[in-house]
Amino acid sequence: MIEYGPDGEVVAEAVTVPSEPPASEPARTDTAAFFDVDNTVLQGASIFHLARGLWRRDFFTTRDIAAMLWKQASFAVLGENLEHVAQIREQALGFIAGHTVEEIGRIGQEIYDEVMVDKIWPGTRALAQAHLDAGHDVWLVTATPVEVATVIADRLGLTGALGTVAESVDGVYTGRLVGEFLHGPAKAVAIEALASERGYDLAECSAYSDSANDIPMLSMVGDPCAVNPDAKLRHHAKAHGWRVRDFRNGRKAAKVGIPAAGATALAGALAAAASRRRATR
After folding, report:
1. Any catalytic annotation for residue 246?
2. pTM of the entire predicted model
3. Measured between alpha carbons, how far is 60 from 270 in angstroms, rounded to an integer?
4. Catalytic position from the list 30, 38, 64, 246
């Protein structure tokens, strides 16, 4: 109510206060957001940042690194095929064979603090934080080693991470994988299993990725979003009315970052380089 004086001026204004404040919407426990890592959360390929950190710690020679970069470039141009994926499934993470889980976990934390912390896309970080603020669980889902993905998730305060799992016996890596290389359709399978375990309603969930390889993952949720998308995903997203967010500047967008195929190839190249290195010992 507004009270006016003799000359028409406002002398008092009463504000009606509700007897009870409006109830805030309760946090949903059946809702989650799933984020790819490479070029979505992190600029570039996490496996490359890991490889560079391991190279600095004498896991590889300069020649090995050069071979990895050449193979990465080759895959970026020619793409990948099922034979390549099968080879990578057998070889991936072989570069840590013989090393302990504790050692690689510690190195992963060091590499995050040295390099990765400055490679996080602020825009994607804000998207993840918005989900956290809304009470949603937030998961990373990536082909990168689960140890590295877990470090990133922990540092960002996320719920957890799904990643490629390397077999270990008595705390020492064998160089073999446990289950599938978490790439492409395998991500959708992993999310479906997690949703069943946690009770997530996928129709209420969100997913974020830069790569057309993750269309199966994006298609299974009610709120898919293409982040820094490659050309194929951008076209698919527009055709299906999906959200698109691009946090790259013009020059970075022109480069299109490191394609997912290149990152996948690099994982295989790392394994091959490590195998050669072990054979010469």
Report:
1. no
2. 0.74
3. 9
4. 38
